[in-house]
Amino acid sequence: MPLLGLLPRRAWASLLTQLLRPPCASCTGAVRCQSQVAEAVLTSQLKAHQEKPNFIIKTPKGTRDLSPQHMVVREKILDLVISCFKRHGAKGMDTPAFELKETLTEKYGEDSGLMYDLKDQGGELLSLRYDLTVPFARYLAMNKVKKMKRYHVGKVWRRESPTIVQGRYREFCQCDFDIAGQFDPMIPDAECLKIMCEILSGLQLGDFLIKVNDRRIVDGMFAVCGVPESKFRAICSSIDKLDKMAWKDVRHEMVVKKGLAPEVADRIGDYVQCHGGVSLVEQMFQDPRLSQNKQALEGLGDLKLLFEYLTLFGIADKISFDLSLARGLDYYTGVIYEAVLLQTPTQAGEEPLNVGSVAAGGRYDGLVGMFDPKGHKVPCVGLSIGVERIFYIVEQRMKTKGEKVRTTETQVFVATPQKNFLQERLKLIAELWDSGIKAEMLYKNNPKLLTQLHYCESTGIPLVVIIGEQELKEGVIKIRSVASREEVAIKRENFVAEIQKRLSES
Amino acid sequence: MPLLGLLPRRAWASLLTQLLRPPCASCTGAVRCQSQVAEAVLTSQLKAHQEKPNFIIKTPKGTRDLSPQHMVVREKILDLVISCFKRHGAKGMDTPAFELKETLTEKYGEDSGLMYDLKDQGGELLSLRYDLTVPFARYLAMNKVKKMKRYHVGKVWRRESPTIVQGRYREFCQCDFDIAGQFDPMIPDAECLKIMCEILSGLQLGDFLIKVNDRRIVDGMFAVCGVPESKFRAICSSIDKLDKMAWKDVRHEMVVKKGLAPEVADRIGDYVQCHGGVSLVEQMFQDPRLSQNKQALEGLGDLKLLFEYLTLFGIADKISFDLSLARGLDYYTGVIYEAVLLQTPTQAGEEPLNVGSVAAGGRYDGLVGMFDPKGHKVPCVGLSIGVERIFYIVEQRMKTKGEKVRTTETQVFVATPQKNFLQERLKLIAELWDSGIKAEMLYKNNPKLLTQLHYCESTGIPLVVIIGEQELKEGVIKIRSVASREEVAIKRENFVAEIQKRLSES
After folding, report:
1. For chain B: N or C, fewer Cβ within 10 A?
2. Distance from CA of A401 to the nearest CA of B (A)
3. Do residues B183 and B143 share a domain?
4. Residues of chain B contacting A6 with CB distance shorter than 8 Å
5. Measured between CB atoms, which of A118, A219, A438 is closest to B118?
6. Which residue from B minimizes the CA distance to A142?
């Protein structure tokens, strides 16, 4: 009697009433009829659910299920991203979905969404991870790893209000690549940008641009413009909104909400309009104010070197030095970057896509040291591919084009035109599976041939093997191409080899 | 001044003291020295961490990081498992890490570990998923899906006390395959057992056996032995411990803890010792007591049919009808099964492995109906591969054999014997990456040749391309095999093609 122990108390009365019915005809008297009991239990459970009027079947707010259609698109994109990470020598890694709450606090800055905390069920205070970078830094410090190139693909959770139309959810996937270790300047940083280019080109999302800046230049700019040091991070997070908000709105936020003097805001306004190639770096070296700031000069020096390497990598034309780039997260200490798509792939009738950045990252030399009891630093630089946005773009594009994806990979279907051929079908399909061939059949004793062929057409299975009375008598199997409807008879003992041959040719 | 906004208040005093130091020589006076500020901030943060004496860097209790070594083993095993699922026509799917708490309650039974609840931060009450089966049933009911063959690989969380030596953690990976839908009896059930055989054979874990039983036979056995219906699930969960506990201890639990009459326990004891092939099914049909129970007869009828299909699949010798198999979870309603390894791969000096079951599953025809407002049922049957235990076994075996795994897939290393060849190396490695070749180099301006070659040997990179003064002058690149130490010079313009040729040959 399944689930009896779990019944809510109020369901018991109804269950007992039904159990008190006289036993049915097939009961032995001594032993109570099990069907009847089982039925009574199910009815009671149903009652129990109906007695909870507030119970709605849904996924939690801001989350969703990923259907087979979603999964196919994801798998393709993640495969491409992960191959690129592996091409650059990265190792895989994973960390738990949750961390000690203390590990995650004071790492993300003012504009970060809320963390999901776990309930205190006795024991440690825990939170779901908010990104993959802080767990990576914790891992390096905890294991005293001084050097590592790793990638990490995993879910993260942020309690933001979900704007579902833009493909933003409270649960989402991140794909990170990071290089930890003390190396000669800008070589790993340049590789990170190379990786972003390879992935964005490989995904064929259209033209893109990677904006580059340096936190030391941002801070230097703030300093020479007269921003009080206590307001650096707050103003930084305002500047970070420039890709979504007009300058005048950002200026308003800085002056009215964050109490910045208007003339200071205007000085910043002059800088953040600047963007260009390596020549802008040279120009900023000559800037009367910025050139007086030691930190800014360090940042500019590094950017100059970075552009040299990017030229050798053949990707300098994809990179723009952009003084409006600030990045929201607090932990960056050096070069920062963010990739944006230049032409959103809109077509007639399609909503224009506003997807924001599709990849971003930067240098964070202080984060690992925050976890080390002695403050030992491990410089890091890395990037995160905005795969959720990319999934969304690709799905939208497929929808527009009316493209359909197969959600299974089945190569062969085992069919019969006659009744009583289940045994033969089971033997044939086992042979196919044992030979590594992807095969399906209908779970029916006597399916109709038309139903079977329709199944192949609707799910995109290319080949059918058919066994019936005639084939059995002649010791053959018919192989049918679903596309051409051509059929050939092959000796029973050769049919697997013949199918393998056809599959390798296609 | 990174992170300033986030400083704990008590760190401010120390920060201010340092900021009040006179500006350093490189400061302009008007603009405060940024290095000095940054340094002060970091020192303060360090102080802040030191002021939290209880802060330990660790992963939460019962969880762990997965190192690159773990990941390589996992990737191989998961690839094999997922290919098998795809070979049988399954679609991929994913559900959120957490569900409404109500979705998960009253599904798992008395011996289930605790659920991880999320903190009530305003909004819905949520829990981390406990398995992948209940979310699947919720998905089917929510989307009114009546038929689906899907696989799902994902993390689940259970607040059990971790027994780490047996590879059990509070966070672990599950790999599930399920067939939902109304079909002719036992065809999907037989396929589930076929899949378990294919995976366990494919993983080469040694000989294995799959125990099979049916919940209706278990319940029928309880009924004819005289177990009160109210104790069915409680006694079922005691029986489930028979693979870890001796009969006399299980009997003691049933009699003393669960209040079963000793003679009833002894009657059960007679049954649970029975195991065998299809002949035992026939024997039980003749059993004077069991044959009087309608439910048991239904179960026996289905098992007979199942064995017929298993024989056609060629796997009947791997299957044992075992009356002691009960399965802990409450939602099973029909056939149940569990795979155990027969020979644990122990060698001299290795601890004997007690890994329990490595795969299990069964039929659960009532679960989807529990979510449907009208109680519409969708019959389901499925299996779960105990991948964590399999990971553990494979890792232990590799440790015993002293096997090492490469954690990267890098094929080519770009080296130089001379100084000032960074630019050439960057150009060469970009060409390799752009041709899809997995390549690495050291992030140093002037690395020593020996260091570079050592890196290749220690990480298992098979090929090195070398560029130096002589090669540059002659317009060639040297290709070196790390294993044989042989070197050949190839024209600069042909080196990528030559490497591709060598890689395709190996």
Report:
1. C
2. 23
3. yes
4. 106-107, 109, 233, 330
5. A118
6. B57
Gap between the Cα atoms of A378 and A334, Å rounded: 14
What is the per-residue pLDDT for A163? 53
Residue B124 near chain A (CB below 8 Å) = yes
Total count of domains within chain A: 2
In-domain check, residue A157:
yes
Q: Answer yes or no: is A199 within a domain.
A: yes
CA distance A291 to A494: 79
Inform me whether the pLDDT recorded for B110 exceeds 80: no
Q: What is the mean pLDDT of residues B132-159?
A: 96
- Euclidean distance between the first and final Cα of chain B, in Å? 53
Cα separation, A338 vs B259, whole angstroms: 67
Condensed to tens digits (0 to 9), the pLDDT of residues A374-401 reads: 889 999 999 999 999 999 999 999 999 9
Is B158 labelled a binding residue?
yes
Sign of the four-CA dihedral B126, B128, B130, B132: positive
* B positions 338-367 inside 8 Å of A (CB): 366
Residue B342 pLDDT: 86
Tokens, residue A22: 């006289």
Of all residues in chain B, the one with the smallest CA distance to A43 is B375
Q: In chain A, whose CA is at the least distance from the CA of B376?
A: A46
pLDDT confidence tier of residue B167, bands split at 50, 70 and 90: low
Residues of chain A with pLDDT under 50: 1-51, 164-165, 345, 348, 351-353
What burial class does residue B427 get, using C-beta atoms within 10 Å of its C-beta: 0-12 exposed, 13-18 middle, 19+ buried? middle
3-state secondary structure of A388: helix
Whether chain B has a CB inside 8 Å of the CB on A213: the answer is: no
| Residue B25 binned pLDDT confidence (cut-offs 50, 70, 90) | very low
Query: Which residues of A are less than 8 Å from B183 in CB distance?
Result: 443-444
Residue A156 sits in the same domain as residue A187: yes
Give the pair of three-digit tokens for residue A331: 């932990």
| pLDDT recorded at residue A10 | 41
* Structural domain ending residue among the three candidates A366, A382, A401: A401
* Judgement on whether residues B134 and B235 belong to the same structural domain of the protein: yes
Q: What is the predicted pLDDT for the residue at B81?
A: 98
Whether B83 and B231 map to the same domain: the answer is: yes
Ligand-binding annotation for B295, yes or no, is no
Q: Which residues contact B246 (CB under 8 A, 6 or more apart)?
A: none
Domain CATH for B451: 3.40.50.800
- Whether the per-residue pLDDT at B467 is higher than 70: the answer is yes
Judged by CB atoms closer than 8 Å, whether chains meet at B68 and A438 is answered as no
Could B126 and A60 be called an inter-chain contact, meaning their C-beta atoms sit closer than 8 Å? yes
The average confidence (pLDDT) of chain B is 87
Band of pLDDT at residue B307, cut at 50, 70 and 90? very high
Q: Which of B334, B367, B401 is the last residue of a domain?
A: B401
Domain holding A436, by residue range, is 412-505
Q: Identify whether residues A363 and A329 lie together within a single domain.
A: yes
pLDDT (0 to 100) of residue B26: 39
Q: Determine whether the interchain pair A155/B97 forms a contact, defined as Cβ–Cβ distance below 8 Å.
A: yes
Q: Is A375 left (phi over 0), alpha (psi -120 to 50) or beta?
A: left
Does residue A456 share a domain with residue A336?
A: no
Same domain (yes/no): A359, A431: no
User: A309 is written with which tokens?
Assistant: 């390497």
The response to whether B331 counts as a known ligand-binding position is: yes
Identity of the residue in B86, B233, B292 whose CB atom sits nearest the CB atom of A409: B86
Please count the other Cβ atoms lying within 10 Å of the Cβ belonging to residue A298: 18
Q: What pLDDT score was predicted for residue A329?
A: 79
Chain B 467-496, residues with CB within 8 Å of chain A CB atoms: none
Give pLDDT tens digits for B256-280: 999 999 999 999 999 999 999 999 9
Q: Cβ of A73 under 8 Å from any chain B Cβ?
A: no
The whole-number pLDDT of residue B456 equals 97
Spatial distance between the Cα atoms of B21 and B36, rounded to a whole number of angstroms: 9
Question: Is A239 in the same domain as A258?
Answer: yes
